[in-house]
Amino acid sequence: MIDFRSDTVTRPTQAMRDAMANALVGDDVYGDDPTVNDLEQWAAERHGFESALFCSSGTQANLLSLMAHCERGDEYLCGQQAHNYMFEGGGAAVLGSIQPQPIENEKDGTIPFTKLAAAIKPDDAHFARTRLLSLENTINGKVLPLSYMAQAREFVNQHNLKLHLDGARVYNAAVALGVDIKEISQYFDSMTVCLSKGLGAPIGSLVLGDKAFISRVRRWRKVLGGGMRQAGILAAAAKIALTEHVDRLADDHTNAKTLAEGLNRVPGFKVNTDVVQTNIVFAKVDPTIDQPALAAKLKEKDIIITPGNPMRLVTHIDISGDDIDTFLKELDIALA
Ligand SMILES: *Cc1c(COP(=O)(O)O)cnc(C)c1O
């Protein structure tokens, strides 16, 4: 199968399966799992934070972070397109009594500081208390520049806010910028990292922050039913994702560029290659093309796409350069 739906569809490698089979485990709710403890200690150091927590998903990692930064009646500033506003079921409001204050993202994914400043509420009983700015990098495959993140740090310092990064795909950002992950993480009070997206672990995300913050995160994780027992089985694969699968993200980015350029040669498809900065391609598709029929034809050739306009195609560890060529060939045939 050549599956373009998401970078979450990857299967664990043999090395991951071996590590999972052989992992030393214990009850992590008691703090007894040596493989989880190793991952959390290693990850804290690697990303330049005091502490880390392994949890089940990116959505949970964001929710725990928001609940650990904000109390009932507080609010967080975020992008209108932010995953933790748009695509997490309103969890912060539903489960945390925290109000989101979304602000329109610019085309490049940034949020203008003038608009952010204007959205900060005065200290007055009419208003929610503005506590946090939450950014996302990459956002829809686009990379926020280091200079923007540095300015965001200055902004939150000036306004006495905390700064969170939804870093589900932060390693794609680091690889695209050609910098060590700490060049990005240094600006943030907290950061989440998805290990089951481009990095190829089967399950798991990290929350990173200082000791006091992570102990609040750990508490909320238990409250939300996210305490896991012999989770070392998962942490073993997660460690390999972080140690072995980072540099190869550059291949996904190259493949996405090749895919974008190839699609621009297909009648009825149009990609703005300027915004293909990492592993996500958005193609505008001529509305006369019957996309469900196209998807069905490609499925017969073991190729999976998600119909949509724009159509989103994501490259990952289980899609090779040859697979891109195969897809473009089969797409031409299916459209003929
Ligand atoms: C996928 C994603 C998440 C959520 O991760 P899940 O593991 O799917 O819950 C959060 N933020 C961003 C930016 C994402 O792309």
Automatic annotation (TrEMBL):
Query: Which cofactor does the UniProt annotation name?
Result: pyridoxal 5'-phosphate
Which top EC class applies here? lyase
EC number(s) of the enzyme?
4.1.2.48
InterPro entries according to UniProt: ArAA_b-elim_lyase/Thr_aldolase, Low_specificity_L-TA-like, PyrdxlP-dep_Trfase, PyrdxlP-dep_Trfase_major, PyrdxlP-dep_Trfase_small
Give a yes or no for keyword Lyase in this entry. Answer: yes
Which Pfam families does this entry report, sorted A to Z?
Beta_elim_lyase
Which UniProt key words apply to this protein?
A: Lyase, Pyridoxal phosphate
Q: Name one GO molecular function term.
A: lyase activity
Boundaries of every Aromatic amino acid beta-eliminating lyase/threonine aldolase domain copy: 3-284
Keyword Isomerase included in the entry's annotation: no
Q: How does it assemble?
A: Homotetramer.
Give the protein family: Belongs to the threonine aldolase family.
NCBIfam families, per the entry: GntG_guanitoxin, PRK10534.1
Q: What is this protein called?
A: Low-specificity L-threonine aldolase
